[in-house]
Design brief:
single chain; 484 residues; mainly alpha; Rossmann fold; DNA Cyclobutane Dipyrimidine Photolyase, subunit A, domain 3; five-stranded parallel sheet; 5% strand; globular
Length: 484
């Protein structure tokens, strides 16, 4: 019986339980990646994502080639493909990792499961990153996460692999038509080779300055691990990274705090994915429905200025332009952007979700939507965080180096003026030969005033009886009650 090792967000062979299981069975196997039109046309996926995935497949094929194997790459949606395969082969077995994806992939998986059950086809799904399917609450979740991360890495023996083939008819029926534009030269490149190199360089030296630079928009690009895209697309596993951290901590006791801080981010990575796994609806709806009465009107001018980095708020514009060009900004700057959109501009988080998903090279649905909602304050039990972009600039880009790199209109201004150009006096404007409206943009809002208005509004909703009740119900699903 042919076994289909279906790759989705797991472009690697190391620590790959579905592949190990397939090899250990002794039956012929086929590597499969489906470039699904439903995702090619999805508003939350973009060319940069598919480019990273295809680069990862090219890198993976270099590993498989000596064993006579390759990833079969076809442009077709999953259910039509497997129906066609069944027509040609009869019985087969599917092996894959569990995927916590967007609503479209969730529906696809439900439909495929139903069809597999009807045809008596086995589809084995394996846990990948400490996220548990079917969980009703978080009791003992951290213990299970720790146990999974400490468990044995699933390393397949490729020399024992029996390589199968897809029917030629299907390969011809579903050829890859998708063409990658030769762009995004500033993006990280996909592939496990790059992931391993990044992990090695991080644990060799870069991690020592991790904690001090994690919030700074410029230097975080150097001293953070930069593994987020590789984790999101599975060229490296979270378990492998955690075990590498433990090994480093044992052999080099210095800078343990930085290692522990990095490990904690990996824990929170899985923690947030578990939220979407447990409640897929939060991709579309306010987690707490008590917040449905606010932010329901979209200002299209705000949206255009925000996504193009022309808000007139320098740190906001610098981060959006940087994200659009490179696919990466650090966590704090992401939170500041969402805070600016949902609090200062009082806009619905749903409106900005597609653009940010498109731009984040490390787009991970299970992090994207819970984080959007947490920063927007639509859950009800989190602290409401309103990030003042001026304060963030003063704290983390005081010399305005990051701002000036991405907002060159402000290059010739003194740092304090580049951070808040709207506060420039007429005399300063004359001396700097700078006109706010002609040389840059007037600010889209009053940072101080609109921030206060937003805080007061969100706090007033948070204090309502209905909000608190719903927050308590949500916490029963997503918070370990034993830790309360």
């Amino acid at each position: 019986m042919v076994q289909i090792v279906w790759l989705k967000r797991d472009f690697r062979v190391f620590d790959h339980a579905p592949l190990k299981t397939a090899i250990d069975s002794g039956q012929p196997l086929v590597f499969l990646f489906l470039l699904e039109p439903m995702l090619l046309n999805h508003q939350k996926y973009s060319n940069r994502h598919f480019k990273f995935m295809l680069e990862s497949i090219v890198d993976l094929n270099r590993v498989l080639q000596p064993y006579g194997a390759k990833v079969h790459l076809l442009e077709v949606d999953a259910l039509p493909f497997f129906k066609a395969l069944y027509k040609e082969l009869g019985a087969f077995r599917i092996l894959s990792h569990q995927e916590t994806g967007v609503g479209s992939t969730f529906v696809r998986d439900l439909q495929l499961k139903k069809w597999c059950k009807e045809q008596k086809i086995d589809w084995l799904e394996f846990k990948q990153q400490g996220v548990n399917r079917g969980r009703k609450n978080r009791n003992n979740w951290k213990v299970e996460w720790d146990n999974f991360m400490e468990s044995k890495v699933q390393t397949p023996n490729l020399s024992q692999m029996v390589v199968g083939q897809l029917p030629d008819k299907l390969v011809k029926q579903f050829p890859v038509l998708f063409e990658l534009a030769n762009e995004h030269i500033s993006m990280q490149e996909g592939g496990r080779t790059h992931a391993v190199d990044l992990l090695k360089s991080f644990l060799t030296n870069r991690y020592k300055r991790y904690s001090k630079n994690i919030s700074k928009p410029a230097t975080s690009r150097i001293y953070c691990s930069r593994l987020s895209a590789h984790i999101a697309w599975g060229t490296i596993s979270v378990r492998e990274i955690v075990q590498s951290i433990h090994k480093k901590a044992k052999t080099n006791p210095s800078n343990k705090r930085d290692l522990q801080n990095f490990k904690s981010r990996l824990y929170w990575h899985c923690h947030f994915i578990q939220k979407l796994e447990s409640e897929p609806r939060i991709e579309f709806e306010n987690h707490n429905p008590a917040y449905n009465g606010i932010r329901h009107t979209l200002n299209k001018e705000y949206l255009q200025r925000f996504i193009s980095g022309t808000t007139g708020i320098p740190l906001v514009d610098a981060n959006m332009r940087c994200l659009n060009a490179t696919g990466y900004i650090n966590f704090r700057m992401r939170a500041m952007l969402v805070s600016m959109w949902t609090h200062h501009l009082l806009q619905p988080w749903q409106a900005i979700a597609p653009h940010l998903a498109n731009m984040f090279l490390d787009f991970e649905p299970g992090i994207h939507y819970p984080q959007l909602q947490m920063q927007a304050g639509t859950v009800g039990y989190h602290t409401i965080r309103t990030y003042n972009p001026t304060k963030q600039a003063l704290d983390h880009d005081a010399e305005a180096k990051f701002i000036k790199k991405w907002v060159p209109e402000l290059n010739n201004l003194a740092p304090h003026l580049a951070i808040e150009p709207w506060k420039m006096t007429p005399m300063e404007a004359l001396m700097e030969d700078f006109d706010l409206e002609e040389d840059y943009f007037p600010p889209i809002c009053d940072v101080e005033k609109d921030g206060r208005i937003a805080r007061d509004l969100i706090h007033s909703v948070k204090q309502q009886t209905q909000t608190r009740y719903m927050a308590s119900q949500i916490s029963k699903i997503h918070v370990n009650q034993d830790e309360l």
